[in-house]
Write a structure and sequence with these properties.
The complex is a heterodimer of chains A (307) and B (318).
Chain A (H helix, E strand, L loop, with lengths): L5 H7 L15 H33 L3 H4 L14 H8 L6 H32 L5 H11 L4 H14 L6 H26 L2 H9 L4 H12 L1 H17 L2 H6 L8 H6 L10 H23 L6 H7 L1
Helix pairs in contact in A: 1-8, 2-14, 4-14, 5-8, 5-11, 6-8, 8-11, 9-10, 11-14
Chain B lengths: L1 H7 L13 H35 L5 H4 L10 H7 L2 H34 L2 H16 L2 H11 L6 H10 L12 H28 L4 H9 L4 H12 L1 H16 L3 H10 L2 H4 L2 H11 L3 H29 L3
The chains are: A mainly alpha (307), B mainly alpha (318).
Chain lengths: 307, 318
């Protein structure tokens, strides 16, 4: 899942004012009934989309005998934290705390490295004209379309030949290479949206060029950095396939790989503990989404251009 | 460095004596800025791509991983792949599954986007929140939750079907039959993909000028005509991007199928291309043969995205 290149285009485009009710406004009496109907449909849809998330939380809070019982428990009528205790500190599976540590390290590494590298690269691609520039942009666009699923064997062999299997650095670098094309492509669009005139004005006022980049352009890229940051965060936190191949030892697993160890061919799945584990993996992402969503629509750049 | 680059900034104002030093720095600076990204991409994407091609032309099994030299076999791996019925079954399965998912995602995503347009502020917020929750769920966690919902013994799906239809659905194994296995997989993927599509299309629809829609209505255009003749053409490029991206994502789906197989599917009857490469390569150790499939897979993906890449290159002046 990603935020896709369209985000960049939409953010730069001017948004004409639209009154959503304009077309149907002429029939007020029917409109109330209709809007009530649409409201009901929306409520049902919202419930349907949110249900699996609710069900995950619900199951994680129920005691094992109720989870695997004949009755359906639609809400946690017998609340317990035991599933979380089992998920985090149970003796059978690989441990939770190292997995959390690995995931946090990889995510931090990828987030910071991708934003710094992509910022530099997008400056090079937008503010300079040099031979090979077009070729680079084109290859970034094409590389994005190469499926990681096809590359898993050669990436595995590369990491193996460096003796870096089961290391956070190796996984971080694989993720970095995975997110960079999208990150550079997106940031490039945002840098294009910041007029060169702003930098030039700063330089006429005595600013050096690197300082102009840092003091003028960088802050104006906030929306772009947020959306590329979200992408890098999600990729590093959620990615499963490469982590499955590279992080095989119990103590070096990331959270997604750790979560899969809940299922063992020889034993019945402990669904309560598995749902508790899923909550632990999902909650940071859900919170992050809710926090960031409002900030992604900031129109800093358009304001600067008009002013 | 800073003083020389400052001189070159206003293009025609650079004084003649300084130009000798300036070009070197300006030529180098962009490459310095690009160097870290370039290095990462060449080493971790470029090299494995070349390596994948190399592997596909050699006999490479577990023994070669331990140091036995790999004999060059030319196109043998490709011939073996293309004459293998399993490969064609997996490919056909992947494409059918992808098409079903894309059609469902785009259709329902459009309907949800249109619904978002119709809603008042409160209900729009409610629906957006529901969509956001689904969107935010990590694919692996989402798959496990859905696996639990469709659990044969205690899953809520069988409970609900039993009480709704009156028939006894308890103990029904959803994942054993390949068709219902893929129905569950499609449900999960479409559920997870709709929010992004709906939000993007909604953002696009709100940019269609209200006057144009009003004019169309005054001219007697029905709601359907307004949608297909006004709204869709306005957001045509968004549709192209969404369809191409959905095709790519749904064709290379790995996590969902892999996890669902772990919960209770039959591998040989439910593998898609990505999972098949994993099975052949990582699990069974036929690295050369799996790489040939990976190369074919990559070519298919590039062919699908070619139109999108060309359109993007044309539209954005690189």
């Amino acid at each position: 899942m990603s935020l896709a290149p369209v985000g960049a285009g939409a953010a730069g485009a001017p948004v004409p004012v639209l009154r959503p009710g304009a077309v149907t406004r002429r029939r007020p009496a029917r409109r109330t009934a209709a809007s009530f109907g649409w409201g009901a449909v929306a409520a049902l849809l919202a419930a349907a989309f949110a249900f699996p998330v609710y069900w995950m939380v619900n199951t994680s809070l129920l005691p094992t005998n109720l989870v695997s019982g004949p009755e359906l428990h639609l809400w946690p009528d017998e609340l317990t934290w035991r599933n979380y205790d089992t998920a985090m500190f149970g003796q059978v599976r690989s441990p939770f705390v190292p997995a959390l540590g690995n995931s946090l390290q990889v995510t931090f590494l990828v987030l910071v490295a991708s934003m710094v590298l992509a910022f530099f690269a997008s400056l090079a691609l937008t503010r300079f004209r040099f031979r090979g520039r077009k070729a680079f942009v084109l290859s970034i666009l094409v590389i994005q379309m190469v499926p990681g699923e096809a590359m898993m064997i050669s990436v595995f062999q590369l990491v193996d030949s460096w003796q870096l299997l089961n290391t956070v650095v190796a996984l971080g670098m694989v993720y970095l290479a995975g997110v960079l094309p999208f990150t550079i492509w997106t940031l490039r669009g945002f840098v294009n949206g910041v007029p060169v005139e702003l930098e030039e004005a700063a330089m006429i006022d005595g600013c050096s060029r690197p300082r102009a980049f840092w003091k003028v352009t960088f802050p104006l890229l906030a929306p772009g950095l947020v959306s590329t940051g979200v992408f890098a965060f999600l990729q590093a936190w959620n990615e499963f396939m490469m982590a499955l191949i590279i992080m095989t030892r119990p103590e070096s697993m990331t959270l997604p790989v750790w979560l899969r160890t809940f299922q063992q061919a020889t034993k019945a799945t402990d669904w309560g503990a598995l749902m508790a584990g899923s909550v632990l993996v999902a909650i940071p992402v859900v919170v992050f989404f809710l926090v960031v969503q409002g900030r992604m629509t900031g129109g800093l750049v358009s304001g600067a251009v008009k002013g | 460095m800073s003083s020389t680059t400052l001189q070159t900034a206003p293009p025609d104002a650079a004084p003649a004596p300084r130009t000798r030093r300036a070009p070197t720095a300006t030529r180098l600076l962009p490459w310095l800025l690009l160097a870290p990204s370039l290095a990462a991409l060449v080493v971790i994407t470029g090299y494995p791509l070349v390596r994948m091609l190399w592997l596909s032309l050699h006999e490479y099994e577990r023994a070669q991983l331990l140091g036995v030299p790999a004999p060059f076999v030319g196109l043998d791996n490709y011939v073996a792949t293309l004459t293998d019925a399993r490969f064609w079954t997996v490919t056909a399965r992947s494409f059918v599954f992808m098409l079903v998912c894309v059609v469902l995602t785009i259709t329902v995503g459009t309907l949800v986007a249109l619904l978002l347009m119709k809603l008042g502020r409160v209900m729009r917020l409610v629906l957006s929140l529901g969509l956001l929750l689904a969107w935010a769920m990590p694919p692996l966690a989402a798959m496990l939750v859905w696996g639990w919902i469709f659990d044969s013994q205690y899953g809520v799906a069988n409970h609900l079907l039993t009480s709704l239809t009156g028939n006894d659905w308890m103990g029904h194994l959803w994942l054993i039959d390949p068709v219902s296995f893929f129905a569950v997989a499609a449900l999960v993927i479409v559920w997870g993909a709709i929010p992004f599509v709906a939000f993007t299309l909604y953002a696009g629809f709100t940019q269609v000028p209200g006057e144009v829609l009003e004019a169309a209505q005054l001219d007697g255009a029905s709601a359907g005509q307004r949608f297909f003749r006004v709204q869709v053409p306005y957001v045509r490029t968004i549709y192209v991007v969404l369809i191409v991206l959905s095709m790519i994502w749904d064709l290379k789906v790995f996590t969902q199928i892999f996890v669902l197989q772990g919960i209770g599917g039959i591998k040989s009857e439910t593998s898609t291309l990505g999972v098949y490469i994993y099975e052949m390569g990582m699990a069974q150790g036929h690295y050369g043969a799996a790489s040939a499939i990976a190369v074919i897979f990559t070519v298919i993906m590039l062919a699908i995205s070619a139109y999108y890449v060309r359109a993007t290159v044309k539209e954005e002046q690189l």
